[in-house]
Amino acid sequence: MIRDETAGRAAGVTKALLELYEVITHEFLAPNLREQFDTWQLLLRARNEGRLFSKIIWPKDPEMKEQVKRLHLLLTVKDSAANIPKNLEARRRLQFFTNSLFMDMPAAKPVSEMIPFSVFTPYYSETVLYSMSELLVENEDGVSILFYLQKIYPDEWANFLERIGRGESSEDDFKDSPTDTLELRFWVSYRGQTLARTVRGMMYYRRALMLQSYLEKRYLGGIEDANSAAEYIDTQGYELSPDARAQADIKFTYVVSCQIYGQQKQMKKQEAADIALLLQRNEALRVAFIHEEDGASGKEYYSKLVKADVHGRDQVVGHESSDN
């Protein structure tokens, strides 16, 4: 049914249905019901003469063909327990996702037709990124934040070390590499109540839209039109696709309203440097803040919206002034 009808394929379908019929009647039916089936002379004669399921008619209904394609995919894609994540949080997310597939939802429109939306996160002076000193300082029980996270997330810690190309490393081993030190700060901050964690979570919207747009562009007739199971997960390069990136930026905007970011920059506070780092790591992130200047008639205040330019510096993309 997923291909054009031929005599050979029809014979194969007939054989498969006969085998399924035999399995059901001999393995699943109760003995009394099986005996009742055997008393049906018309059915018994057709089976003995080989006429059972011999006149297969290929369904022409597009919706039926679509369901058969999906069933074929589920039955032919092979997986093993080795591919199941060890991490409990990863399993929980996968379980939530698979359960959502059985929800009765209307068909989603393509990304190009969805309504654009914006997300705003208010921020004042909360922690943006943990510093190395905060990671290593010990509490009254002699336990540091880093040590605690290493013990409650041992698999994630091992994965982190593998990603940055290190084996079993201690805190002192990171001092020789500013890059690894920064990655360590992000790893810990993503597991605490920090602005960095919030930004990463919100930016997943953009990644999801890029991926969906990329797949819709690649498989115009639907993902099920791919010829092999390997093509279904061929998402390499979606984050580098100009079309997918542009589509996601049109549909999704994320702004963090850092009220005193301008003051923090002037005072050269660590929070300002960390916010600038988030801007550099997330090209679609925008930061809104109040900029204060001394004017001829007193204080002047400006509402600014900035992003990171190609050199990592703040680039103003929105500006509005008002006198106090």
From TrEMBL:
A Pfam family it matches: Glucan_synthase
All copies of domain Glycosyl transferase, residue ranges: 84-310
Ranges for domain Callose synthase helical: 9-77
Superkingdom of this protein's organism: Eukaryota
Biological processes, Gene Ontology terms: (1->3)-beta-D-glucan biosynthetic process
One Gene Ontology term, aspect cellular component: 1,3-beta-D-glucan synthase complex
InterPro entries the UniProt entry points to: CALS1_helical (IPR058851), Glyco_trans_48_dom (IPR003440)
GO molecular function list: 1,3-beta-D-glucan synthase activity
UniProt name for this protein: Uncharacterized protein
Organism (species): Eleusine coracana subsp. coracana
Gene: ga16217
